[in-house]
Structures are given as structure tokens and as C-alpha cells.
Amino acid sequence: MATKVTTPKPAELAESIKLIPPKTEWMDTPTEIKPGTFCWGAKGKNLGIVEFPNARDWNPSEEDWKLPENWQEIFLKGMKDLLGKYRSFQVFMDICVRCGACADKCHFFIGSGDPKNMPVLRAELLRSVYRNDFTTAGKLLGKLAGGRKLTIDVLKEIWYYLYQCTECRRCSLFCPYGIDTAEITMMGRELMNLLGLNTDWISGPVANCYMKGNHLGLEPHAIMNSIEGMIDDIETITGIRVNPSFNRKGAEILFVTPSGDLFADPGTFTCMGYLMLFHELGIDYTWSTYASEGGNFGFFTSNEMAKRLNSKIYAEAKRLGVKYIIGGECGHMWRVLTQYMDTWNGPADFLDVPVSPITGTRFENAKSTKMIHVTEFTADLIKNGKLKLDPSRNNDLIVTYHDSCNTARGMGLLEEPRYILRNVVNNFHEMPDNTIREQTFCCGSGTGLNASENMELRMRGGLPRANAVKFVKEKHGVNMLANICAIDRATLSASMDYWVPGVRVTGVHELVANALIMKGEKERETNLRGDPLPGKEGN
Question: Which residue in 153, 219, 404, 479 could disulfide with 331, CB within 3.0 to 4.6 Å?
Fold first, then answer.
């Protein structure tokens, strides 16, 4: 299973993209599951921990996927249940007219040229089974009505392409009927989950989060040790020792961030930014080593698992007796919080509507969830003149901004990060309009696709975003790509190294901390990464 796969060189990969239709109809064109374009199968141990069905080790590259004998019955019954439970799924199965408006909007289609990665055709893979078994025309006319039987080859094809969708919803923006292809992918993955056809990169973090409270499986002492290391680095840079609290009852605010910020660069620099900002403000907040994950990989398996993993945030807020919650820079964390959390685990009547303890601003947009994004909080501070900033400390950086799919299209968080950036850096340039804001391109590795064994797929999916970065690099000399998503910080680093060498990746609050003038700080010589500040290169 762990056979090493060589990723093509950038020129080879780009040359391989052929936007030429196949000679056969899509139903008659066989699918090849290619190394480098799929994630390894889930381990039975992890599936068992969360009581997922058909827990066993399995390998997508092998002929035998070790399915239950009645796998077709399980799949079709599951589809019937989902059609009955979610009206949107039924509607999306019925109303598509195959106009193709979405076809060239998907980053995986642009990066691969594979027609089955057109959103319309990827959905059609599942829709064809729906037509065959759940519509009168399909039952009578079969293929003539767009239906096909659920065979093992059909199942494998559906699985393969469901895991070439990051649920970014860019295609949905252009659909004249408003079909949310991400929801179709979500329903399809739920069906795959009924057969135990999950991936290791998703099921492992889900099991860790279920048992330990975070995707990395970090124990409380490991979390605290990691943050202690950041505290030491902050003291070295600024001369100030910050003093966060953990699991403290009675604090005003609970802060929750993705675990990637706790343990992996460049996320750790973003985390240092949070620590410095909150210390400078003197706000009454606490971290939790139990609800130590804002992200939610359960969202990539089933709604029920996502609900279970999300519940720890409100449960911990209630246990600690805080007034409200601030969340860190994460993508799918915020889609879950904005669109699902209150329905799943609310109402959070035991919490207050967030009110900034510094500016007095009442965040009415968080009236139901009682949780605000850290960029909303910081943008409000800057607007009200509560931070002393020196953007010249970031003068060595020429910055552009990547709108993370879930915060942009999932919650409309478009202006706050840009407002912050324009106040903490002097050199900021936008990418082309049709690649940002609501039309932003995905990083190419979300929804649990950010593994190492599928690197070719990731680089193909990351090509459209990389092209836009390359444009501003060549035009303006951009050397830093900012974003507000932990997965983006990890995956875009690899994508930039591959497609646009010389461009690094950062969180917004790393740049905030570089510019932040703290009371009592010593003269700074370096930024958070240890690089000399502009004008300090010779020291």
C-alpha cells in the first residue's frame, strides 16, 4: 500500500493536460485508478474506533476492496434514506440539464483535462445510479434514460472521483439552477462510508479527534509543550513573555484554533500571532486542551460524525463557563460553524452574544453561534485604533491574499482579512478578479485530500491557484501568499514550491504580530520566522 509514487515535474504535468474529448461516451470509457491520484484506504483500527461500518484494512489499488456481500443493497438503501432525509439531494439529482456552465470552473478539471472531473459529469456518475434505481424512466429504459446499474466497476469509479472533489463549491457559483455539487459529493461520501470505503488521511484524524480532541492526536501535555516553545520564541524576539492559560474556568473567552497551528510550520507562526495579540490586549481568555481542534474531518465522512466531533466545542465552553468563543484561522471549521453548528448542537443559550472587551463592538452576526472569527475581532480592533502597528516591519514582503473556499463562499468573510492586511503590510496586490473572493480557486487539497501519496492529484488541483499567484509574482514581485486556513497553509506551501518557487505562505496573524508594537518590547531584530527585519540585515 505504501509504494512510493514519483510526481511528474511541473513541465511534464502541464504538458500532459489534454482538453480533448474521449472517442467514446463517458459510460463506455473505463476508469483507471492511477497511482499518485488517490489516497490510501482507511485502516480498520481507525474505522473501528469510531464504529464506522466494515472496519478492515483495504487498498484502493487492489482488485478486492473487501466489501460486504450485500454491498449493493447497503448502498441503494443508503441512497434511498438520504433522498428521503435531504430534499436538496433529491432536487439536485433531478434538475441538472447538463448545460456545462460548471464544466471549466473546477480546478481538478482544469489541471487534469479529465471529463469526469467536470462537476456536471462527476455528479452524473452518482446520478446515473439514481436514475436507474429511483426513477420510472430509468427502470424502464435504463441507459437510454441516463441510468446504469451499480456494478463493482461503477462503484469504484464513483469512489475515485468523489475523492477528486474538494467540496469547494466554486462550480455551484456558476450553476444557473443553484446545484451545490459539494452536497452531492458529501452525500456520495456518506454512501461510501456505509461500505467502509474511507481513506486513511480522513479516518485517522477523525479517530484521533474522537479520542483526543484534535486531528493530530495530541495529548494535553503535548499541546502545552508546543505552545511553551512558541512562548520561548516570542520572548527571544520581543523580550516579552506571554502567559496564556489552559482549561481555566471562568474566563470570558474560549479560544479554539485548528491543531495544525499548534504543531506545523507555517501555522505555528500564525499561532504565535494569536498569543502576542491576546497578550498585548490583556483579554481574559483561555485555551482548552480537550476541545483542541477547530477543524472537523468528520465533515468529510458523514453529517453525523461531523456533528459528534463539533459537539466538543460547545460542551467545553459550557464546562469552563465562558461567555463566548473566538475561533482561529481555519477553513472548513468555519463552514461547519456558520452553516451547521447551531442546527446540530445548538442553541448555545448558555453563551452571550460576543462583545469585544476592547472596543465594545457587539457582533450581531454571531447572535446564534456565539462564536466569532479572529479576523473579525482583529479588524474591529484596527478600525477602532486599538492596535499600534508598524507595517514597515513587513516591507520585505510583497503580499497577495488567497480567499479560502469555506470562509469566502461558505461564510462571506471577504473584507476583514484584506482590511487587516492593508494595515499591517505596505505592499499588497490582488490576484485577478475571477480568481478571488466568491470566485476564488481552491488550494486543491481540501476535504482530506492533503496526503502525500496523491501528490500528483494535489498539484493538478493546485494549478489554477498557482497560475494566479504566478501572474502577480511576475507583475508585482509577490513573494508571500497570505490566507486564513490551516489546510491552505500546509497545502499551498507544497503547491507554491512546485509551481511558483520563491513564494512562501503565511497566515494573516503572523503578519499582524510582525507589525504589532507591544508595550515594553525590546528593539526587534527579526520577524517571527527569525528572518532579519528590513534594515536589520547586518545585525
Answer: 404
Residues 372 and 500 in one domain: yes
**Domain holding 86: CATH number?**
1.10.1060
So what's the pLDDT on residue 538?
77
Order of strands across the sheet with 480-483?
399-401, 480-483, 504-507
Cα separation values, 453 from 2, 55, 237, 476, Å:
8, 22, 37, 34
Please give the grid coordinates belonging to residue 143: 441507459
CB 351 within 8 A of CB 326: no
Indicate whether 98 and 166 sit together in one domain. yes
- Decide: residue 125, CB within 10 A, 0-12 exposed, 13-18 middle, 19+ buried: buried
Whether 235 contacts 473, CB under 8 Å:
no
Are both 377 and 422 inside the same structural domain? yes
Residues 146 and 230 occupy one common structural domain: no
- In the predicted model, is pLDDT for residue 215 greater than 90? yes
Smallest CA-to-CA distance from 325 within 309, 339, 341 is with 341
**In a domain? residue 521:** no
Q: What percent of the chain has pLDDT over 70?
A: 99
* Residue-number span of the structural domain to which 439 is assigned: 204-515
In a shared domain, residues 130 and 249: no
- Please state, in angstroms and rounded to a whole number, the distance separating the CA atoms of residues 257 and 249: 18
C-alpha cell at 461: 488541483
Q: Are residues 57 and 191 in the same domain?
A: yes
User: How many domains, in total, are found in the chain?
Assistant: 2
In a domain, 529, yes or no: no
In a domain, 145, yes or no: yes
Question: Which cell goes with 7?
Answer: 510526481
| Cα–Cα distances in angstroms (integers) from residue 493 to residues 198, 394, 417, in the given order | 26, 19, 19
Residue 7 located in a structural domain: no
DSSP string, 361-406: -B-GGGTTT-EEEHHHHHHHHHHTT---B-GGGGTT--EEEPPPHH
| Residue 147 shares a structural domain with residue 217 | no
**Torsion angle, alpha carbons of 508, 514, 517, 523, to 10:** 170
Q: Select from 167, 198, 229 the last residue of a domain.
A: 198
pLDDT digits over 220-264, tens only? 999 999 999 999 999 999 999 999 999 999 999 999 999 999 988
Residues 480 and 364 in one domain: yes
Burial 279-314 (b: 16+ CB within 10 A, else e): bbbebebbbbbbbbbbbbbbbbbbbebbbbbbebbb
Length, in residues, of the chain? 539
Note the pTM of the prediction, 2 decimals: 0.96
Task: List CB contacts of 227: < 8 A, sequence separation 6 or more.
Answer: 244, 262, 271, 275, 287
The CA angle 198-200-204, to the nearest 5 degrees, is 105
- Please, where are the H alpha helices in 241-363? 260-263, 267-281, 303-320, 332-336, 342-345
